[in-house]
Structures are given as structure tokens and as C-alpha cells.
Amino acid sequence: MSARHPRVLRMSSLFVRTLREDPADAEVPSHRLLVRAGYIRRAAPGIYTWLPLGLRVLRRIEGIVREEMDAIGAQELSFPALLPREPYEATNRWTEYGDGIFRLKDRKDGDYLLGPTHEEMFTLVVKDLYSSYKDLPLSIYQIQTKYRDEARPRAGLLRGREFTMKDSYSFDVDDAGLEESYQQHRDAYVRIFDRLGFEYVVVRATSGAMGGSRSEEFLAKAEVGEDTYVRCTACDYAANVEAVEVRAPAPVSYDAAPAAHAEQTPGTPTIESLVTHLNEAFPRSDRPWVAADTLKNVLVLLRHPTGEREALAIGVPGDREVDLKRLEGQLEPIEVEPMDEAALKEHPALVKGYIGPGGIAAAGIRYLVDPRVVEGTAWVTGADVEGSHVLDLVAGRDFTPDGTIEAAEVRDGDACPRCDEGTLESARGIEMGHIFQLGRKYAEALDLKVLDENGKLVTVTMGSYGIGCTRAVAAIAEGTLDDIGLCWPRNVAPADVHVVAAGKDEAVFAAADRIALELAEQGVEVLYDDRTGKVSPGVKFKDAELIGVPTIVVVGKALAESGTVEIKDRRTGERTEVPADHVVDRLVGLVSAG
Amino acid sequence: MSARHPRVLRMSSLFVRTLREDPADAEVPSHRLLVRAGYIRRAAPGIYTWLPLGLRVLRRIEGIVREEMDAIGAQELSFPALLPREPYEATNRWTEYGDGIFRLKDRKDGDYLLGPTHEEMFTLVVKDLYSSYKDLPLSIYQIQTKYRDEARPRAGLLRGREFTMKDSYSFDVDDAGLEESYQQHRDAYVRIFDRLGFEYVVVRATSGAMGGSRSEEFLAKAEVGEDTYVRCTACDYAANVEAVEVRAPAPVSYDAAPAAHAEQTPGTPTIESLVTHLNEAFPRSDRPWVAADTLKNVLVLLRHPTGEREALAIGVPGDREVDLKRLEGQLEPIEVEPMDEAALKEHPALVKGYIGPGGIAAAGIRYLVDPRVVEGTAWVTGADVEGSHVLDLVAGRDFTPDGTIEAAEVRDGDACPRCDEGTLESARGIEMGHIFQLGRKYAEALDLKVLDENGKLVTVTMGSYGIGCTRAVAAIAEGTLDDIGLCWPRNVAPADVHVVAAGKDEAVFAAADRIALELAEQGVEVLYDDRTGKVSPGVKFKDAELIGVPTIVVVGKALAESGTVEIKDRRTGERTEVPADHVVDRLVGLVSAG
């Protein structure tokens, strides 16, 4: 609600056209409806034009973000999108980003990129202006257009190639300062996402390509989201599935363990066939063999940003698959792909279906295992010979992996890594915000130091905090729409009230005109369907439902019959008859209440 | 003045550092001061980072522009900056822009550009949404980042490679509608530039690469400007020098004119030597020969955007040079360069210093002449033989050029093309706004048609209206600065009042704190120099002068002595002693008065 623009948006002249048909390329409901309701139009894959209604929603979101950033003393500035190569060279990201960024040359053959994120620029501007611990802490931010050359732009605004982000950075002289700056931003983010008015969850996250330590994501709950997160049924643990850390069991003593022994297990290249064979050929008295007793070794190919390729072996308990996305989450910016048969054949020591730690070591391949593979645990695994497995192979005695990695799939029902009671359950979400403690990675690469209290140069520590503003439009739409259209939370809707003149006679239009104007004068933002001619009330109702302004006022037949108009709540569908003379006061009250 | 952000900007924490030294690369005063006062920083040639103070000025300018656009019913939308090649191919601008735009490829080898202007996108979005004359007139606009790969980015923000523009377009069904939309925009522009608070002039302009007819520019008066304009001393004629149209004299009867005759004029390759020789060898009884009696033929090379090269001959009265910028203004997007001796030698019919219409025709070169060369006028010009000129060569009788062109230099004292009394005087300016009637060029190229009242398809006619927002920051700075710093007009200043705590004792800071806070609570935007420690009052005064907030309040020694503080007008230097208790009321009044 704002008194600054006492302008009524009239449907008769508003630059909008609603569509009855879904656009052919729209994959998700929010995308379909944002196009159909005339909020956005596609200009190129992953690149959108913002029509007036869409721009209003975007600006309201940006306004809320800006207010809360200003409230914690963060200062707004603005970097260019077209950036020189050099700073990104200094941090190696010019290379690390691989195909993921847009690169270009100017007329003098200079190298430029379209900024995907601005860590380097923020770091350099602080280095340029500041030099003393007295200047810190500092938080600075921008709301600005960013670019990524996504391999698969999808879902409309959810994964675009040109998009708007708020990105802020904190600069502190020590870790305690960073922790405080991080917490301030976290609190501001909670206020922002609360004000945006949709369901979200804060989860632990990996920090991916950014480096750094503590990291959390703000996810909108959504089936169409690209992120999977888990929550504990008992405690408040919540994490992006990529960031779940399996609680490693304590090491086991293997003093009494039998020696490892290779056995013939013909025709058992899969875990299922192996377990069946073990129970038939080597039955155990105390309990049957299960998949979790086996150690499955999976080979993948890592593609480093430099183009270099490397084979990697991952060992996981046989009841779990390797989750490539989780694996990639640990290894970013390295990309991962399964190793195909041809690549496997380059290593004669690896026997498909019977790969064991010995063959991996013989092939000279790095070997990382699931955290559950702790010292002293005994496993059945491949013997590197066709039709043969080793039993009672003890970690730390018979083989020593190069380290552990979180790559095994996380499943509903898994034990919570934090508490002893709960189990994990998963859901999908859209990443809308990400906050993390970058630490000194960029400050070191770009030599950002200040003098401390003792006159000694110390490297600054940084936090990084992002919100996808254009993505938020789609995520909020996705989280609030229903089967008849968009259904905006009040704080981000393109207008507060949608007045519909539903009739042909002049009295209806005169009353609707008056209501729209009086509302606007009182600071209510009004979308007014004043269309005449062939536009029927039915079409107007459908458009109002599609556009999704939270409160709809229908001025129609009841006006002549009983002097009333109807207030309709877009979300609940609830209708209230109100005397036409009282409707403005009622609506002003409703809108102020939020 | 605004009550929305009752926040005091404190110098102790504001992200700013003022510099005592001029930056090495700054060519013009506004650039030097914007960097020194901490408004902007260079990120790459022609590409700038906006620090908090600079961003505040930019946002205020954008806010004024937005208000006035909204006030004429223009609707805001937003196009991407990263654009696909195809629409620019359809209008041939992908080629025409030559090296002037940034081009890039995405990972799928698709061609993209960074939008230099958005005519194509605006045209296409209207084609997408609208189809009837009933939908028109329509004016839509955006405030958005644009890119040009300038050959010589210069003068800081004045000619940048990444910059922000407001660009709007009007769409009408007929010429009368376009005229009305144009006038509405023109009126809005006058209001905008009046509110920005600096000296500007509205001049006729050429429409350059954009095509179209009626066209005017809004220029800031500035010595450092790239544009030269002229004004009439008598009437209100004003034009960019590129757009000055010489009033062609009426054709002269040549019935009584003597026949043309070639004469020996040895050693007369220049106009000066020729005139001297004419007066010695062929004296006239009625008046001496002057340079204006001769016809000078100048050869240039045109470089078409396709890469094709073409020779062109320009004939101008011998008392004037060819103005390459004026010539280019007529020929855009073609680039022009002087023809060098080597290129001249490729045409044996052209004899350097003695080129005449005959040689030009023999060489098969297009020949355009100044509008003063009307039918029946007699000239002395080259005879295409070393050391020889033709006298009494009559236009329309002895030679017929291929057309006329406005390429001769315009000089102070030239007759006004409109009135009979005045003469022209020139000055320099910075182009801040440009409005023009595009007509149907883009609508035709992209097939934008609507049904008219009779159900017939008609091509829409368009107007195009731009304001350089980032450039405006520099232009206003340039037009208002003085020898001690920036000196902002009130409506665009980064704050309304700059409060300086000039002293060491606590009472001074307590009073300054109170004044700053009370002002902010009353909606005055306050920059408050609350720095303690080693920052002396002298440094604070210098910074306040450099930063250029229009009103400075000094809380200093007078507080203890007489209970007063000093209000200083940054522009006039005028100082007023005011009781500390009254200063807030005084300032609120001052700021509200504007």
C-alpha cells in the first residue's frame, strides 16, 4: 500500500493480454501462468521480458529486500555486468566456470565476461577504499542483473540465463565478526522471506564453487524445485540433500576378525545377485547377508574446469546408489559423469561387476569411500577377478581408502545425523536465498588486507549472501498458485485490489470508477477492469482469477438491486456483500491489516 | 525530501573515501570530481562501479524520469540486455552497427548481442500483444542497462560502454497520433530537465542511424560536450550543428552568363593561392574574387556497415571546409574518412588540387554539392589538369551534381536558416535526451500492423524517446561544479543537508547528532559527518565542499559561544548564523521550498 502512486491501473489501457492457452514451452505451472496472465514474455531461451504486471511484482520484492538490507546497515552500490577478465583470472574462476559463463571480446580483443557473481569486484572495491580494522565491519550489496550460460535453462524464471539478484558481502577483521555479520544477514533473510509471504525452509547447504564454511539455503517448498532437502522427524535438523553428512560410526576393533578370503561367486555382477548367492553358498548362522554388508565400488570420470579428466572410484554400502548430484556438490566446480565401458576397459585391473580395492589401487585410481566404511568394518566386495568376491575384507587392515566422501544417496527413513530419535524425510524446494561464510578465499586471492589494532596487516574474512529476485517471482507464484490462476501474497501482488465493473449500464461503471479512484487516493494500489464493449463479466472474472490480485471487488447487478458490491478473497473464494458506500473503508482496512 | 528513509548517512561508516589527487585517467572536471568525491570507480574502460553516493544521485534522476513518464501514461516494462541476433538481423542493424556493439555466442553457438537500443524488442512486444487500432495510442518505456563498444570511451560517464537509459516508444495508428505522442513526450522531457535543475537547450537534430523524421535533442550546456549546436541571435532557432540546414538560394537565370573557359592558373592547388592568382591574372571590375566564388571539391571514402567502400566527392564553396562530423550525421550508419593520396591515385581522372566536376564524372564517382550550389550559379573550379581552373562554370548548364548534402562547416555569423534578421552562434553541449519520430521503419521491417476502424491492416507509426540516466549524472555534475568540488542541484543531490560536527567537545557532537536525527525524522535526507579522532574540521569542510550537497550545516565553536550553528549555501558560499534550536525548522523550510 502506497500513497506515492495514486494511479489506477486500467485494464482498458494496461499493456497486458491474457492468454487462454498454455505456452508451448512452459514446463512448470508458474511459468505457464506468468505467461498466460501477461507478466512475462520469453525473449530467448532463459531470457525474459518483464511486462508491467510482472515488473510490479519484481519491484515489490526488490523493495522488501532493499528495506531489510538497509535495516541491518548494509549499503547499496552497483557493479557493472560487463566485467574484465583479470580479477576472475586472479581467483581462477575465469577457468573454473567452464562453459557456464558468457565470455566476449571487445573491439580491441580484450577479454570480458558477463558477471555470474561479483565476489571479485566486491573484494577489490573494499581493497580500493579501505585499509584499517576501524573501517570494519562493512556490509555492502547490490540488486543487479547477472548472467549464466546454463546448459539447460528451464522452468521459465526458475533457471534463467539473465536474472536479477541481490548479492551482499560482509567484511570483517576476524572470525567472530564474520559470525556476527552472518547472523545479522540470516535474521534479515528470515524477515525478508516472512514478508514475502510464502512457505519456505532454511536448510544447511554446501557452499559449492564459492568455497567457505558455514552455509545455509532458504528454499521455497515446491514439487518442481531442483533442490532436494531433508528434515528430521524429531529435531530441527534440515539440510539440502547435497549437504547431509552421514554420522560415521565409531571404529570397530578387528582383532578377532577372520582373515579376508576370496570366494567363487559366479554370475554375481549385481548386488542383488551377490546377496542371493552369499545366502545360498555362504549362509551365516546369526543373520542373513544383506546388501548393506557389501561394498559397491563405482567408477566415475571427473572433468576438471581446466579440461583435465580424472578417474575416481567411490565405495558405498551395497544397499545405496551413488548420488551424482551429491557427489558433484562435494566436488564443485568439477563436473562428474559415470564411467562408460570403453573408459573402464582402459584399466585392465578393473573387472566390471567385480571391482575391489585391490584393482582400484593397481589401476592407480583415487579411492574415496562412504563415511560408514570406518576402520574395522568388514565387507564383501569384488576380488577383481570375473565371478569372484572377497569376504571379510576389513577396512584399515586389508585396504586403506584415500579418504571419505558424501556421495551415497540419502533416503527417507535414514537416521538423523544430529539427534538420536528422528529419521530423515525428503522434499523438493527452490533455492531462493543462500548465505555463507566465504572466509578468506577471495581476500587471499586478491590480497585484501587491513591493519589491525596492533598495526599488523591481517587478511579480511568475508560472508556472501544472495537472493534471486527474478527467481523469487516464479518461486512465490509456484508456491501460491491454484488451479484457476496466480494467487499472490499481499506484499508482492501487482496491486492490492482488483476492481471489476461487471455490467453494461452506466451506473455500474460510475460506481466502479468512484471506488477505484477513492481507493487509489487512499494509497491502495488498484487494478481496475474498466473494459467495455465485447468484454463480458465472465471474461473479466476469469482474468481477475488468472492475474491473482488477492482481493477482488465486483461491482455488478447487486448494485441496482441492493446497493451492494461483492468483495471476493482470491485465495479462499470467500465472498462478502458490502454496501457500495462502505466498500472503500472496508478495503482500506483490509489492505492496511496486510 | 522523503520520509521513507529516515536514515542518517554517517560519514564514519558510509562506504566512501574522498581523494585529494585527481585520478590519472580523468579527462574532464566532472569525471575527476565524481571519482575524487567517491561517487564512482572505474571497473574497465568506459565501465563504472556506482558507490553509494553516486547510486543515490542516479536513483533520484531515474525517479524523476519515471514520475514524468508515468504522468503521461507511459507504462514501464523491462527488456533483457542479452538479446538474440534474429530481430536485429531483420532490421539489418546486426550488420549496420559494425564494431559498435558487443556480440557474443552462447554455449550452443547461438549469436547474441548486448542491446545498444531496443527498437526491435519494443516493436515485437507490441506485435505480440496488440492487434487493433483500439489498443493505440500506446507509450511504453524501460529504465535499463545498455551497451556500446565505443571506439574511444571517454570522459568517464559521458561516453561509457555500459550505461543506463530510459528509452520509451510510442505507437500510433497514424501521423497525427504520432505528432501528439511526440508532443506529450516533449512536454514531459521539458518537465524532467527543468526538475533536474541545470541549464539545457532543446535543438533540432538529425535522427542518425534510427531513421525517421522530426527529431530534437536536449543538450546540457558544457564546454566538454561532444555536440556542437547553434542558436539564432534573433529567433528561437536552435539546432545541433549536424542538423543545420542551409537555406538554399533561389535558382539564378544563366541566360546571360558567359561560357565556361579553362585558364592557366599555375601553382594554385589551394583556395588561397587560387584567389590571389585570380585577382592578379583575371581581375574583375565590379568586385574582387573571394574564396566563396570558388567551388572546392573534396574526396572522401565511405565505409558502409557491410564493409563495402565507396568514394564520394563533395563540392562546397571554397570559403568553407567539409565538416566530416556533419557529413557523417547525414550518412549514418556509414562511416566517413578523408581520401588519402594513395586512394586518390587510383583515379587518374582526378588531379590533386585541380579536381573539377568533369574529372569526378570521368572517374565514375558520386558527386554531392552544398545547397548553395543552385542552378545558374557560376563557379571557379578545377579543370582536372595540373595548374588549370575553369571559370564561369555554371551549375545546371555545365555540370549537374548527383544531389545536395549538408556537409559544409557551419560558422558563427552564418545567416539563420529560419529568420531573416539573426545569425548563428555556436556552443558545445552534452546530449542528454533525444526524441524523434521514427515513423514506420521498424514497424515495416518487423511487420507490426493493426486493424484500423475499417478492418484494414495498417502499419503502425512509432516515436522513440531516450534519456541517458548515467550520463545525466555526469552532465549535471559538469554543468554545476565549481573550482572546489561538486555542487548538485537540490533535486538530484545525494542528500538534502550535510551536517558537519566541527569540533572535539561532546556538546558539539551531541548537538550535531540531535540536528541530524531530527532532520531525518522530518523527512530530510541527511549526510552527517560524525567522524571523530584525527579527522579535523578542515578536512570535513573540504570533504563537504567536494561532495557538493547543496546545504551545509556547521556545528562548531559558535555553539558554545552563542548557541548558534552556521548554515552554508554550497553554491553561493553564503553563510547564515542560526540559533541551534531553530536550525531544524529553518532547514525543513529550505528543503521543502526546493
UniProtKB/TrEMBL annotation, chains A, B:
Q: Name one GO molecular function term.
A: aminoacyl-tRNA deacylase activity
Subcellular compartments: Cytoplasm
Biological process terms in GO annotation? prolyl-tRNA aminoacylation
Q: Which PROSITE patterns match?
A: AA_TRNA_LIGASE_II
Q: Which SUPFAM superfamilies match?
A: Class II aaRS ABD-related (SSF52954), Class II aaRS and biotin synthetases (SSF55681), YbaK/ProRS associated domain (SSF55826)
Annotated family: Belongs to the class-II aminoacyl-tRNA synthetase family. ProS type 1 subfamily.
Q: What is this protein called?
A: Proline--tRNA ligase
